[in-house]
Amino acid sequence: QVQLVESGGGSVHPGASLRLSCAASGGTFNNYAVGWFRQAPGKEREFVASINWTGVNIYYTDSVKGRFTISRDNAKNTVYLQMNSLKPEDTAVYYCAEKVYGGSRYSTMAYDYWGQGTQVTVSS
């Protein structure tokens, strides 16, 4: 059974940076794609970024392109989300998830294992 644990969230001012980590245990984490999603209060959980198992195929939602970078270190069973130039609209709980089977990388329904989330708050 795969377990995912996010860390690195916090409260920052606009323009600041944070790096989120998603550490995996159990299963074969290194063989599968991982996605980052976020959920703001009163909104649906939305796709932020994903990375395939080799780290070659990477996708971002338009609102974070050029500011966020997803990466993975398979030797450490960890996926990262570097977030720069943070904006108040980035405020949300951020979740990582592992996609074992098929389905759209952009859909929460395609992901099989989820972490508990880490809060990111951006405010002045």
Attribute tags:
4-stranded antiparallel beta sheet; 7-stranded mixed beta sheet; globular; mainly beta; single chain; 124 residues; 11 strands
Write up what this structure looks like.
With 124 residues, the chain is mainly β. Strands 2, 4, 5, 6, 9, 10 and 11 form a seven-stranded mixed β-sheet that branches. A four-stranded antiparallel β-sheet has the order 1-3-8-7, with no helix packed on it. Strand 4 and strand 5 form a beta hairpin. The chain is globular, with a radius of gyration of 13 Å. It starts with a strand and ends with a strand. The model has no long low-confidence stretch (mean pLDDT 95).
* Helical residues, percent: under 10%
Counting DSSP H or I runs of 4 or more residues, the number of helices is 0
Distance between the termini: 40 Å
Q: Kindly report the average pLDDT value.
A: 95
Number of strands: 11
Strand portion, in percent?
A: over 45%
Shape: globular
The Cα radius of gyration reads 13 Å
**pLDDT below 50 for ≥5 consecutive residues: which ranges?**
none
Q: What structural category do the secondary elements indicate?
A: mainly beta
Sequence-ordered SSE layout with sheet pairings:
Elements: E1 3-7, E2 10-12, E3 18-25, E4 33-39, E5 46-51, E6 58-60, E7 68-73, E8 78-83, E9 92-99, E10 113-114, E11 118-122
